[in-house]
Design goal:
single chain, about 0% strand
Length: about 150
């Protein structure tokens, strides 16, 4: 009888842990955001050193960042609902701004590069302010610190 009770307790604990495990499983999007953050840091450093070639090499990595797998995109689209078009618009603005940054750095125009980078940072910030909190709460839970980027 004791074995059956222990088994029941174990199975109940396991069953209760499944939703938590799914909620804290990292999205591929989180990895993409971390890589974008690293690329933004490289660009910041490169601009400060006037290393235009580094900016030219790194900006396209932001503009053409990897996409999450289709199954994850479906989860995100389901969660986003009507706001998905706004989310995609922010992503499009980020791509455009990163390409403009690449062009400005290619011209080795420091002032234009800084202005383009500010625009890129603004597109990131706008999206983060609109969606990051909602994503973290929905996919990781409010008490989870897995914000990633």
């Amino acid at each position: 009888m004791k074995k059956k009770v222990n088994l029941a307790v174990y199975l109940t604990a396991f069953a209760l842990s499944i939703p938590h495990a799914q909620a804290t499983e990292s999205l591929e999007l989180q990895k993409v955001m971390k890589e974008l953050g690293r690329n933004m840091q490289v660009i910041t450093d490169s601009i400060s050193r006037e290393d235009w070639e580094s900016v030219v090499r790194t900006a396209p990595l932001i503009a053409t960042h990897p996409q999450p797998p289709v199954s994850e995109k479906m989860r995100i689209m389901k969660f986003m609902g009507a706001e998905m078009s706004k989310f995609k618009a922010f992503d499009g603005e980020t791509h455009t701004a990163a390409h403009a940054l690449e062009q400005a750095a290619h011209e080795q125009d420091g002032q234009k590069t800084i202005t383009a980078f500010a625009r890129l940072q603004t597109t990131c910030l706008n999206c983060h302010q609109a969606f990051r909190g909602k994503f973290v709460e929905h996919f990781y839970g409010t008490d989870n610190k897995q914000t990633g980027h």
